[in-house]
Design goal:
- The complex is a heterodimer of chains A (419) and B (71).
- Chain A has 419 residues and is an all-alpha fold.
- Chain A has one domain: Up-down Bundle (Cytochrome C Oxidase, Chain A), CATH 1.20.210.10.
- Chain A has 14 helices and no strands.
- Classes of the chains: A mainly alpha (419), B alpha+beta (71).
- At the A-B interface, helix 6 and helix 11 of A face helix 2 of B.
- Chain A: It comes from Vogesella oryzagri.
Chain lengths: 419, 71
């Protein structure tokens, strides 16, 4: 008999929110990391610094927070010891990010890289356990299956990254030139497979689109994962073959499926579809940049590919989803603990729509500044300033939502009868 | 009575509607709703009220019918 998922074990509010807040701090710190990118050379520790602060610090934290929340809601995963994830995984992740950033900032300083490898290895151990829990979950829906593959890609990314730290930090003689492309491919797997799995839930739930087509739900994650595996195998056999296009092959199809669903959204004029439309535009541009990369090998094109993937598509979708998820989680927490005579503020009060639209404009500015930096790395101040502006704006909006939530958690004063 | 279709409403509207219906419903009454997916976040709130529930998939798999029994 097949076990039935139990959906009663939602993690405490503090678990995902802690990751989201750390992401905000990393976004603010990221501004200072652009200074060394003026020469635009890649690969170089100067460029690895903002890249990893963004990938691990900003996006990694958002994606881990969302993953933990989603695993409970979608895959019915229980978190019997939330403190382990709240402090253990979160703490190891932040120490790993900070040590890695300091290692890159210090020109591959071995001590910091050693610390980063230990902290990230500890985080990896917890994530292996999470993957095992997910593997044992009776949930067999397509989203849960996709999350399993995405988490596996994250583990591969971390493992390959830590192996490279073994070379730089511990002086091991492992084949760096084989590890680096595999690390990049695995990271793409983590990003795309997570987005594919999350979109299957998020699009119908929060953008009120029809369910994504059955064939897409069934085959998107294993198909994309298979292409990444093929690209990895070919990269190992023929390292100069430029097999990146295989990883980008599903982009147009993914854009078409998501775009078609968005076109049938029951609330097309809401603010959230704008984030997705911008994300789809950037995804299309990324596909074109990958095609162009087959004909032209230039530094600006490589920077553009990197920008369009992480600060482009992924950051845009992450910021949009945070504007929806954070007030929803706050509301849910208030609604559960509601007392008689207490009124729960609506989502609109917790985070007004006008603020989400301001965030969208800040993200657009960030994208323009980023593309300018890709074309002329001497303009590094532009993404630094635009990132700071975005972080300050998000900080202001989150703080206002938190204050509203705090007011909602205060006990209601008893009315004193008039004598 | 045919189930009330709550698809097309943004979260948390369906949760609010179901909780209001439970709070205002008569003891022993059975209410049914059509939702786009299984309402995981709603369950602890129903349990707090001592409400029993069950669900079934729509034949075309486009959502679930969610039943609640008011104690």
């Amino acid at each position: 008999m097949q076990a039935i998922p139990s959906y009663d074990s939602a993690p405490p509010l503090a678990l995902p929110v802690r990751f989201f807040m750390a992401a905000w701090v990393w976004l603010l710190l990221l501004a200072g990391a652009w200074i060394g990118t003026a020469d635009g050379g890649y690969p170089s520790p100067a460029l690895w610094l903002p890249l990893h602060m963004l990938a691990l610090g900003v996006l990694g934290n958002v994606m881990l927070g969302a993953l933990l929340q989603l695993l409970a809601v979608v895959s019915a995963l229980a978190f019997p010891r939330p403190g382990l994830w709240q402090h253990g995984l979160w703490g190891c992740w932040q120490v790993g990010c900070a040590a890695l950033a300091l290692g890159f900032a210090g020109g591959l300083s071995p001590h910091w890289l050693q610390l980063a490898s230990v902290a990230l290895l500890a985080a990896m151990g917890l994530l292996v356990w999470l993957w095992w829990l997910l593997w044992q979950s009776p949930a067999q829906d397509s989203s849960s299956r996709g999350l399993r593959l995405a988490l596996l890609c994250l583990l591969l990314t971390l493992g390959l990254g830590v192996a490279q730290l073994g070379v730089f930090g511990w002086g091991l003689s492992w084949p760096l030139l084989s590890l680096l492309p595999l690390h990049r491919l695995a990271a793409q797997g983590w990003v795309w497979l997570l987005l594919v799995a999350v979109a299957q839930v998020i699009l119908p739930m929060f953008l009120l689109t029809p369910a994504l087509p059955g064939w897409w739900q069934r085959w998107a994650s294993p198909g994309w994962g298979g292409l990444l595996l093929l690209a990895a195998a070919l990269s190992l056999r023929w390292p100069d073959g430029g097999w990146w296009w295989l990883a980008a092959l599903p982009l147009p199809l993914c854009g078409w499926v998501w775009g078609k669903a968005l076109a049938h959204s029951r609330r097309p004029h809401e603010w959230l579809p704008r984030y997705w439309q911008l994300g789809l535009g950037l995804m299309l541009a990324l596909g074109l940049a990958f095609i162009a990369g087959q004909w032209q090998d230039s530094d600006w094109l490589r920077r553009l590919q990197g920008w369009l993937l992480l600060p482009g598509v992924v950051l845009t979708l992450c910021v949009g989803m945070l504007y929806r998820i954070i007030p929803f989680l706050l509301w849910l927490q208030l609604r559960r603990g509601v007392k008689p005579q207490q009124k729960v503020p609506s989502l609109q009060v917790l985070l007004p729509e006008a603020r989400a639209r301001q965030g969208w404009r800040a993200v657009c500015l960030w994208q323009l500044c980023g593309v300018a930096w890709c074309l002329a790395p001497g303009l590094w101040l532009l993404p630094a300033l635009a990132g700071t502006l975005l972080a300050l704006l998000l900080g202001w909006h989150y703080h206002a939502a938190w204050r509203c939530w705090r007011q909602g958690t205060q006990p209601v004063a008893k009315a004193v009868p008039v004598q | 009575m045919s189930p009330r279709d709550l698809r097309g409403l943004l979260p948390p509207e369906p949760i609010e509607i179901i909780l209001d219906a439970v709070d205002e419903g008569a003891s022993g009454q059975r209410l049914s709703f059509v939702l786009p997916h299984f309402p995981g976040p709603l369950l602890p709130m129903l349990r707090d009220r001592g409400v029993r529930f069950d669900s079934e998939m729509l034949p075309d798999m486009s959502g679930v019918i969610f039943h609640v029994d008011i104690p």
